[in-house]
Amino acid sequence: MEIEGLSILKTLVLMDTSTGKSTLPLAEYVADVLASKYTVKLLGEGEKNLVAYNDAAKKQVQKGQHYFAFCGHMDTVPADQSQWKISPFELHLENDKYFGLGTSDMKGPISCMISALLNNDPCLPAGLILTYDEEGAMSGANYLVENCKETLQGIQLIIGEPTSFRLGYMHKGFSHYVFSVTGKGGHSSLPEQGLNAVYAAADFTQAIAHLSKIFSTQSNNGSTPTLNVGKISGGDVVNRVAEKAIVEFEARYTADKPPQELEDLLEGKKVLYESQGYTCSLALQSEQPAAYTDKDSIFIRLLSYLSKQQPTLLDFATDASIFNGRGEIPCAILGPGNINVCHQPNEYITRADLLTAEKLYADILESQIEGLSLTR
Q1: Which CATH number does 6-171+290-366 carry?
Q2: Residue ranges matching CATH 3.30.70.360 in the chain
Q3: I want to staple 133 with a disulfide (CB 3.0 to 4.6 A). Which of 70, 139, 149, 347 is the partner?
């Protein structure tokens, strides 16, 4: 069986939209592909999101009803080409697997969405949102939620992240923290005359690790909070007592704010270190809310029926953090590809997944029979 969106996927992979590179050429390419059948808008400051919808979708909104729109992000993580067995910017087929940067996350899913949209009956409402900077601060989705509320009216989003076709109705939010500690420098031969900031940072890191183990025994809406220290820096040379140290870590959680145990730990450690003579600061570098759409809603129940999947909670974050967590737009996460091969050298998506996704996305659009009002 032929993969209808394969030529589109080849073109998308050829474009280097990794972090720091513009996604505008990709947005403009997709706009040209859809222009004959959809109203297409490029929205944003500098970088542009793509929002497309057909006349049937516009009429649906005018009647106060909802319609399905697919959603994906155009950016990818960077690729270390020395670790790839082929060029990450050329689609390569081997053993029924299509290799290339973004094939699973999310250029493969996007090609399947576009295929479904091009084949859609124009009488059936349909739309597409493609965002920039999802792999970063999610600034593309933020721009739309903050500035384009009218354009987003009536939308119910199917975000095609690589879930291996699991149907996500909910996922964690996250907070990125930067903990800085300053002690007193000095010569390494007289460490007692200084106050080593690395020691405080090491103690802080162990405290985070201990709390993470405690969280692993807990449950909140079916998922445990997680903590991870991702970056540590401190000191400058080995023969000097380290005066400064920085620990960066993140928390992921399904509640509407970080766990109270973490808040208590952070405050307690700050008080402790300052009592020892250190100066400490804790900065919230960024945060994204959790996403939740009622799994008993018609929207999720219909997708569950079509995908033959029970709604489940996902551990990784998506643009639903913004569209749902901040914009209150119903969101489901449902797509081809395996999250375990994403953000890795030699990323791939299987031929079977692409075929399944093209059919599933087409079935989703076809399910919107005239007169059906999808509610939240």
Answers
A1: 3.40.630.10
A2: 173-288
A3: 139
